[in-house]
Amino acid sequence: MTQAFFRQKDQMLGERPPPASTVGIVGWLRTNLFSNWINSLLTILSLYILWSSVPSLIEWAFLEAQLSGEDRFSCSEGAACWAWLDQRIGQFLYGLYPSKETWRIDIAFVLLFPALAPWLIENIPGKTWLRRFSFIYPFIAAWLLVGGWFGILDSVTTNNLGGFALNLTVGLAGIVLSLPVGILLALGRQSRLPLIRWFSVIFIETVRGVPLITLLFVSNIILPIFLPPDVALDAVIRVIIMVSAFASAYMAEVIRGGLQAIPKGQYEAAAAMGLSYWQSMRLIILPQALKISIPGIVNTFIGLFKDTTLVIVIGLFDILGIANAMVSNPDWLGLSSETYVFVALFFFAVCFSMSRYSIRLERKLDTDKR
Amino acid sequence: MTDERSRGIILQLFVLIVVLVFIAFITSNTIANLQRVGLASGFGFLTDTAFFDINQRLIDYTSQSTFGRALVVGLLNTVLVSALGIITATILGFIGGVLRLSDNWIVSRLVTSWVEFTRNVPLLLQIIFWWAILTSLPKVRDSLSIGGMAFLNNRGLRTPAPIFEVGMEWVIAAFIFAVVLAVGIVRWARKRQEETGKIFPAWRVALVLIVGIPLIVYFVAGQPLNWDVPERTRFNFRGGFNITPELIALWFALSTYTGAFISEIVRAGIQSVSRGQSEAASALGLSKNQTMRLVIIPQALRVIIPPLTSQHLNLTKNSSLAIAIGYQDLVSIGGTILNQSGQALEVVGIWMAVYLSLSLATSAFMNWYNKRIALVER
After folding, report:
1. Which residue, of B212, B253, B310, B372, has the fewest CB within 10 Å?
2. Looking at the domain assignment, is residue A248 inside a domain?
3. Are residues A104 and A204 in the same domain?
4. Is residue A332 in some structural domain?
């Protein structure tokens, strides 16, 4: 025994392959799925859940689904009925917007991408021009949606705006308006002037402390009381005002986080250069603070975008409102699963891609610091 | 210096004047508008008769009760669904967060897809979806039976109701006594361990006490707890306790939605504890269990608790979405009162006061807790 051990002392033993149980498919299965009995149990449970749900779900949604038809009676029980998509997709996208004018919403939507690009993509050609474009974009979009200003486009009342276009409009307007207000509130909260600090704190904490629904009720019921009797604002405009106020309080907190992350030396250096408060903010502090706040701003936008569905509570027909109306329509009664799943996938596609973007950005900013 | 100071004062005066003018503008408009409609302001309407029914009430309420009482019923409903939601969302979130970090490939992927899907779909849509599913269940006559004890139908879930008989108060008293005793034992054990290093299995003893003492008293008192099991009648059920589909849908949607967010917080919290900590703990000879309990969790909790509380607050605020499915919470009942009495300013004022005080109370608790567990740095 000992002899056998010492016999090969002067020469290396040949490398042996690792045990079969740790490499290849078997090894992967062992380390990742069956490393101990709890894991094995969880694996089997998960496989069972997948096995019992996925095939029947695919069967329901695709294989046996009905794709066309006049109403729900042309669909069979036990399978998804997508027949309504063909007839109703216009309403889901545009609400009650006049159907021969929907191209205006399409153009506004397409122009959105060049307006957003210079802020979301770092190295894009023609950045300065695109940035200038993005500043005039809100006015172009508003003109396209409402029309009438120069008599070129027929005017459309904002009450006709609905469906996904309404969600996008309210969400984007909320973000665009809340950014400047949020920056001012964040600076106000950091200010050395007590009165301005108190006002900012009171506004931010009040708005963050109440649910958005109560603010929407305010927009619907209280705002008309607060305004002079002869001033009447459209419901959509009132909602945009309240949603912007709501978002600006959250935005202020995101930007405050960015401001607090700027090293004190930056403030001191700016003061040493003889810059005034506003100069140092505009040229030194805010560019850095806003850059590190972008992931938070995107997350605020995701939250705001999901919250735009709350407008149904005050009787506007966004994409969820249209879905609700369709579910209770006698022609399509009982199609709640299909309709809500469709709307859910819509939101998921938008919000998930935005959250991926913000995570990617966070990683990138993280390496910048090191 | 004086220049800057006077500029600051001028700026503040300017802001103050703008705010005052704004308030004056709003007030004068409000007075004019209220006079035009002929509405008296004030909270006198709270003592008026409500004339509407509330289907879920935790305290006595009829349509002859006052608006004020209706609001209290609504507040209690808000508190009920929030409390239920906070408990289940936290449990779901912790399980989800731990499972996402699991070595098990399929489990972590499955949980990740659940979290990502739930987080990125509007909560209101989820609430309405679950409510639509629940209300499209079979009618009362064809209720789905769950083991013959509970029944699920389009009017909700009918469960057995507990009946407390004479002697039950002793069981409850015994339970409270056991909890106090257990807390005492855990404290004593910790103190002894700090002084002498001797370990006492305090948690296990405490568990045995908390379960055992009430159980013994329960049997000694002659099993004073009975269950009122719902019985099928021709058209409905007799006995039992009905949980409305609104409450179930709201509770479920709030729990899964907030649970998904909490699981992200928990995952981030656990990952924030550096690997060196668990290596150092095992180098000191702590068992895996002890490492988790004494080293990882206390440090992770410091990162987890603040965002966790704000999620709890979010859940409470989000419970106001109940109005979309007709669960009669504070906002929903307030809306009804607002429509009936026209006292918009007062009702909105009550809403804001309630939610704000909930927020402030939560952040006060938060600050206290944070101070208690804050890292003691030298």
Report:
1. B372
2. yes
3. no
4. yes
Which among A314, A224, A243 is positioned nearest to B345, based on CA atoms? A224
Q: Where are the domains of chain B?
A: 2-38, 67-160+229-373
Whether residue A261 contacts residue A190, with contact meaning beta carbons closer than 8 Å, is answered with no
The secondary structure of A157-207, three-state, reads: CHHHECHHHHHHHHHHHHHHHHHHHHHHHHHHHHCCCHHHHHHHHHHHHHH
Give the DSSP letter of residue A77: T
| Residues facing B164 on adjacent strands | B225
Give the contacts of B106 (CB within 8 A, at least 6 positions apart).
A32, A33, A43, A46, A47
Type of residue at B102: S
DSSP letter, residue A325: H
**Domain encompassing residue A113:** 98-156
Residue that terminates a domain, selected from A106, A126, A156 = A156
SS3 content of chain A, % helix, strand, coil (to 5): 75, 0, 25
CATH at residue A302? 1.10.3720.10
Does residue A199 sit in the same domain as residue A299?
A: yes
Residues A41-62 as b/e (b if ≥16 CB within 10 A, e otherwise) read: ebbeebeeeeeeeeeeeeeeee
Contact B355 A49 (CB under 8 A): no
Q: Which CATH class is domain B67-160+229-373?
A: mainly alpha
Q: Are residues A200 and A322 in the same domain?
A: yes
A284 contacts: CB under 8 Å, gap ≥ 6 = A266, A267, A269, A270, A275
What whole-number distance in Å separates Cα of residue B156 and Cα of residue B246?
A: 8
Q: Does B39 touch chain A (CB under 8 A)?
A: no
Instruction: Give me the average pLDDT of each 10-residue run along chain B (378 residues).
Output: 76 90 89 80 82 84 88 92 94 92 86 93 94 86 80 85 83 91 91 85 87 88 82 77 90 96 92 89 87 86 86 92 91 90 88 90 80 64
State the nearest Cα–Cα gap between B120 and chain A, in angstroms.
5
Tell whether A54 is covered by a domain: no
Q: How far apart are CA A219 and CA A204, in angstroms?
A: 18
A44: which 2 tokens?
């089997």
Residues A143 and A197 in one domain: no
| Position A308 in a domain | yes
Instruction: Establish, for the pair of chains A and B, how many residue pairs have beta carbons separated by less than 8 Å.
Output: 158
CA distance A62 to A81: 10
Is B23 at the interface with chain A, CB within 8 A?
Answer: no
- State whether A230 and A150 are in the same domain: no
Same domain membership, residue A224 and residue A170: yes
Tell me which DSSP letter residue B292 carries. Answer: I
In the stretch 114-153 of chain B, residues with CB closer than 8 A to chain A read 116-117, 119-126, 128-129, 132-133, 136
**With 70 as the cut, is the pLDDT of residue A8 above it?**
no
